[in-house]
Design a protein that fits this description.
By secondary structure, the protein is mostly helical. Among the domains are: 140-201 and 297-328, Orthogonal Bundle (Cytochrome Bc1 Complex, Chain D, domain 2); 202-295, Cytochrome Bc1 Complex, Chain D, domain 2 (Orthogonal Bundle). It is built from 14 helices and four strands. Strands 1-2 form a two-stranded antiparallel ribbon. A two-stranded antiparallel ribbon has the order 3-4. Helix 9 packs across helix 12. This is Cbb3-type cytochrome c oxidase subunit. Pathway: Energy metabolism; oxidative phosphorylation.
């Protein structure tokens, strides 16, 4: 907040408090020139208005409220850039990167119950309480946890808090974000690969036209050939031209049979899993403009123990009832 805006905020807060106090003092005075208990000369529906002062209890409560407000604003932040005498804050508002956040969290852990930042203090307390629980789960295999209902519930909650913004609360994704329930995996669906993906993130990129000497005129035919690979309706008359365009270099990533390459994160073009849409229009758009997808790394933010539980939950979504890796690959 700028200094000018801070001054305006402080002025407005103090003006309201002082104005409230002056209003109370003004209301305590007899402004009508009548004795206490004397009729004000107003009667309505049989009720006569009497000149009575404000109730003492109400006036005292009003004064206590003002005193409380002054004390609160002196101790805690609430007036512009003034940080309060306790130097307390709800969160690290000046943190601009994850490294600074970790440093502040460690400082809060060292300070314990006297930590200045409330959020860091609560996170440190939560880590101390729940850390051993996560460690116990992390000592078990992902396949085992994928069949443990309690572990999956915890993993689901962690997923909803951190992953659902992109993949959806049902983990079925949306355009540009993979469906985690269909068994189609760009980088492989075995437990360790899923965990590696979550820990370190992924960066997938297909350049426009695959970075190949494919002309604009060849793109429609290439799209028809891609449609044919997954058994979709296509124009058979363009297959030969489309296959020729594909053989200019698309096979280097997607394979000669179009089944992709998990080592490169190249998608399988023969199934029905399309991250960016599998219609003719979307396929043409993907070929023409390319695609660039980034999944952030969660290792530093969540820690390996929590990622272990999320992995078990995600693995359970596409693995069979026995938790076999083959069902998720």
């Amino acid at each position: 907040m700028s200094n000018i805006l801070s001054v305006i905020v402080i002025f407005c807060v103090l003006a309201v408090m002082v104005g409230s106090l002056l209003l109370l003092i003004w209301c305590q005075k007899d402004k009508m020139g009548k004795e206490e208990g004397e009729s004000m000369g107003h009667t309505f529906d049989g009720i006569e208005e009497i000149n009575n002062p404000l109730p003492k209890w109400w006036s005292y409560m009003f004064v206590l409220t003002i005193v409380f407000g002054v004390g609160y604003l002196a101790l805690y932040p609430g007036m512009g850039n003034f940080a309060g005498l306790l130097n307390w804050t709800s969160a690290n508002k000046q943190v601009v990167n994850l490294e600074q956040s970790r440093e502040q969290a460690e400082a809060a852990r060292a300070e314990g119950a006297t930590a200045r930042v409330q959020y860091d203090r609560e996170v440190a307390a939560a880590d101390d309480h729940f850390g051993p629980i996560f460690q116990a789960f992390a000592a078990r295999s992902i396949e085992d946890l994928a069949q443990d209902e309690d572990a999956k519930k915890i993993g689901q909650r962690l997923f909803l808090q951190n992953c659902s913004q992109c993949h959806g609360s049902d983990a079925k994704g949306s355009r540009g974000f993979p469906d985690l329930t269909d068994g189609g995996w760009l980088y492989g669906g075995d437990p360790q690969t899923i965990k590696t993906t979550i820990l370190n993130g992924r960066r997938g990129m297909m350049p426009p036209k695959g970075g190949l000497p494919i002309t604009d005129e060849e793109i429609p035919a290439l799209a028809e050939y891609v449609l044919s690979l997954s058994g979709r309706d296509h124009d058979a008359s363009q297959l030969a031209a489309g296959q020729a365009a594909f053989m200019k270099g698309c096979f280097a990533c997607h394979g000669m049979d179009g089944k992709g390459n998990p080592l490169l994160g190249a998608p399988n073009l023969t199934d029905d899993a399309w991250v960016y849409g599998g219609s003719r229009g979307y396929i043409i758009e993907s070929i023409t403009n390319g695609r660039a997808g980034v999944m952030p790394a969660w290792k530093d933010l969540l820690g390996e123990d929590k990622v272990h539980l999320i992995t078990a939950y995600v693995y359970s979504l596409s693995a069979d009832s026995t938790g076999s890796a083959e069902a998720a690959e």
